[in-house]
Amino acid sequence: MENTLDMEHVHPLKLFDVARKERRFLYASAPMVRYSKLAFRQTVFAYGTDLCWTPMILAKEFNRNRFARDSDFTISTNGPQPPTIVQFGANVPQELARASSLVAPFCSGIDLNCGCPQSWACAESLGAALMEKRELVRDMVVETREQLRQDGWAVEKEKDMDSPRGRSLSVKIRVHKDLRKTIDFITTVLGPEANRHIDFLTIHPRTRSTPSSTPINLEALEILTSTFGDRVPILVSGDVFALNALPFTSPLLNTPTPTNTNSNPVSTATAASTTSSSPSNPLVKPNLPKLSGLMSARAILANPALYAGHETCPWEAVETFLNKVVRSPLPFKLVLHHLSEMCAPGMSPFNKSALLTKQERAAMLACSNMVDLIDFLDEKRGRGGGLGLRRDRG
């Protein structure tokens, strides 16, 4: 796909189209506060992620503060710029439209966050609080699309998905306890049958108050995808822990052969047995033929090579991430946190091996600078040939 598409300017709907023709899901990395920065986006893109989200950016501050713009949204000018969706937190149509106008030259699309459950966001009428304000959400996406159109961007959805100036507008939501309210919300935000207001939709099938330890609401997801999946491409966010352990089935579930990155791989028979006996993976899984894509957060943070079929994070992904960090720097403590996630057991239910032991991860977190960190990781991987980073330090 990289050889045939201009990835920096590719329209997200084009990516959905390519994935569908390849009879697979579109693969996306979720917006994660602090973690969905450029170096991480470039890393997951190198391992099969089609579409990357930025962390949620507050539109009001982004519009008014140059320092907020410099710190919240970083792009690549030398090397791969993954197809990127900029996610905003907003509750005023003009604020979202203005912020979208600022970032449109540098991204593939704009996403409105209607799913963040954190109390501070909801207190400001942001995130999941917007699930109670469907008309406002509709007005925000309509005004933003009109602003982008006036700026000269191609925003006619499928009609413009081959245009280098094509840009998308989407919304990420949670669900209500009463699913009828969610259906009303989506119906309002989608707008008329002939000309919907958004290009695609991401559904996190948990309510605002549902903890992440509770499995997603598969019944709600099945109803919503069957109701709206013919009108708009739908991504699911939540419980995407491993491609061979999804809690649903689909004709698009083209699972790569699992790549074991440890010396004690879990056999296919063991994996199947685990699947059939796990409460979160019942024998009869719902079939979701109208679901278009997957979005992962916690699992891809622990294993950036998730969509490439790796059951756990390989050393090569650690090397890729560090090479990206050298060129797109992150605060050192954030680098350590990324690596502590990548070197720990991942989210796959079948393979809990780790690159480093708990004691080794503690020692890694004690490193005080990049040179010591790279030396430490080179030593730990030495039996495999090192990380290949020493040459970058001359």
From TrEMBL:
This is FMN-linked oxidoreductase. Its cofactor is FMN. It catalyses: a 5,6-dihydrouridine in mRNA + NADP(+) = a uridine in mRNA + NADPH + H(+); a 5,6-dihydrouridine in mRNA + NAD(+) = a uridine in mRNA + NADH + H(+). The keyword tRNA processing applies. It comes from the Eukaryota. CDD domains: DUS_like_FMN. SUPFAM superfamilies: FMN-linked oxidoreductases (SSF51395). Residues 252-284 have a biased composition (Low complexity). Pfam families: Dus. Residues 30-244 form the DUS-like FMN-binding domain. Catalyzes the synthesis of dihydrouridine, a modified base found in the D-loop of most tRNAs. Specifically modifies U47 in cytoplasmic tRNAs. Catalyzes the synthesis of dihydrouridine in some mRNAs, thereby affecting their translation. One of its GO terms (biological process) is mRNA processing. It comes from Canariomyces notabilis. Signal peptide: none annotated.
